[in-house]
Amino acid sequence: MIVIHVPRASYNLKPVYVGENPYKGTFKRNNEGDYHATEHEVRAMIRDQNPNGNDSSIMEHYTMDDIDVSTLTAYRQMFKVANPEHVWNGYEDKEFLRMLGGYSKDRTTGLEGLTMAGLLMFGKGLSIREKFDNILMDFRDESGLSGDMRWSDRVTYDGTWENNLFNFFTIVTRKLTADLKKPFKLDNETRIDDTSVHKAVREGFVNLIIHSDYMMDAGVLKIIKRDDGFEFTNPGVLKLPIDEIYIGGNSKARNPRMQTMLRMVGFGDNAGSGFPAILETWKNNGWKTPELVENTVLNQVTLSLSFVKATKKSSDKKSATKIGDKKSAIKIGDKKVSVIVESHVEEIVSFLTNKGEATTAEIAEAIGLKPSRTRELLGVIDEVEAIGSNKDRRYTLKNK
Question: Within 13 Å of residue 59, how many CA atoms lie on the same side as its CB?
């Protein structure tokens, strides 16, 4: 078997196309086939070339009248608590928003108004839906269900709240963290209820907001709370290769102004350390490694944070060592992906333990990887053996 690793093109070089027309000559690799990229997908690639991100664009005809005053007031109160001596606290709302990147004026054309960041974060629900009717915000609590219940709580468009991103973030964050353990801890005689797990969950939420492509033809900011963890899904594919994201140290948010708005009130980080912090927290608690899965068919990314304990078998150490050594790194493509690989090894072994035997496609679907990537892993896991011819090949665990 010959494995050819084709590196992902940098976001600022896309779209890569044949011929002279990117809308006709751009192809995408989805699983094991190449397909024509749609016009919306090509436009998304072109948007991602912008070094200033997506959320600085001025929303023509959207003014301060489209801002929900109660939302901005709540944000400004949080800002003042986090930054009590900041000079911006004395500014009027319009100037305050301008400093945050929520309001702007084009000096060349004279056009001014709310930016995408300002409208989506603090706008009135109706104003947002008029401009972004393609985007849906949806939270579902699927924990503690019984009988035919589909969810025990839900936050979506229902007329009971101004559905902007900041309200969505504050309302849903409380619901996400309400049941997390809060060990008794004092700091200068003040009880500290925040833990590294609380921070990691909020970081996952922040990542969803700042990396979403709100100009996709359709998309859902979806958050699901389950008994065994959380799931965050945002529209838009990854701008960076997944192994670089796991390593950290680099951040390429689609919406850097939203990132600043959240960071200024204590949420998130723009130094590229947020996702590694999530990994570290989950590792310290002995839980399964967080999974970041990119779906290039639906053009969305899902982060899964599971409270399930990571399985540790005597054979796992041997497998992880083999995958991390130089020989296997060449087959896999990069030593830096070992943190991802180890979690997938555990999932493959667990899946085959329950299933008995399965095809590459079945295993790939179960662990959320492409078949080609899954096939690479199957070839270097000691516990797994192939049975049957190439055409009908299946995989099982040795001595099963």
Answer: 25
Does 184 score more than 70 pLDDT? no
Q: Is 326 exposed, middle or buried (0-12, 13-18, 19+ CB in 10 A)?
A: exposed
CB 42 within 8 A of CB 22: yes
Top CATH class, 64-306: alpha beta
Listed ranges 295-299, 317-321, 345-349, 381-385; the one with the highest mean pLDDT: 295-299
Give the mean pLDDT of the chain: 85
**Domain spans, the chain:** 11-48, 64-306, 314-397
CATH number of 314-397: 1.10.10.10
Q: What is the largest CA-CA distance in the chain?
A: 73
Q: Where are the beta strands (DSSP E) in the chain?
A: 27-30, 33-36, 103-105, 112-114, 135-141, 153-155, 186-187, 190-191, 219-226, 229-235, 291-295, 300-306, 357-358, 384-387, 394-397
Question: So what's the pLDDT on residue 45?
Answer: 94
Nearest by Cα to 260 from 94, 101, 51, 79: 101
How far does Cα 91 stand from its chain's mean position? 34
Distance CA 359, CA 361 (A): 5
| pLDDT at residue number 5 | 80
> Are 212 and 219 within 8 A, CB to CB?
yes
